[in-house]
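Lecture 7, part B: from sequences to assemblies.

Below are the input chains for today's worked example.
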Amino acid sequence: GDSVTQMEGPVTLSEEAFLTINCTYTATGYPSLFWYVQYPGEGLQLLLKATKADDKGSNKGFEATYRKETTSFHLEKGSVQVSDSAVYFCALSEGQAGTALIFGKGTTLSVSS
Amino acid sequence: NAGVTQTPKFQVLKTGQSMTLQCAQDMNHEYMSWYRQDPGMGLRLIHYSVGAGITDQGEVPNGYNVSRSTTEDFPLRLLSAAPSQTSVYFCASRGLGGAANYGYTFGSGTRLTVV
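Predicted structure of the full complex, as structure tokens:
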């Protein structure tokens, strides 16, 4: 079945450092891809999404490009802030009318000043 | 404020007890779902519903029951709680068109401990 694999954490960075969180997926069709963020004690919030190959999703300085040839959707940010400390989840939806999100295990990011 | 409301936020149960986790949304979303979040496991789908009167099982449905009598509410019932059901539970909803067009909205979660 479809699955998502993302890099294990925790990831510890200093403020203004460059961030990459790797995400690869396995899917039989043409999934939509998402990054969700979970701040401490809160639910998940959609960070960005991409619905077809070569699409780039972006939000709050974060970016991710849907790479069909490498089945990847890596999350990047050029300069992280302390406020970016959270758990990041990569997810896919099985097709346009997918009924569920399939999540990776999550990557904890900790940014220090 | 529009969104997904989950109650209670915290709950401690004894093994064998039953309880209902409540989920309500005011966005007229057709699709609602329940996930559980466990350390190192990500989120796993328990049950979902594509509309009132329609429910289906997800990846980990055993020990849980759901029903959908209204568009707004989607309660999750634990029939006989077990320690393995200790987890954080999230309810999520979205409108028609698939996840690609309508992002899921998540509740803030219910932290359940079964002793």
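Note for the exam: Chain B has no helices and eleven strands. Keep this in mind when comparing with the next example.
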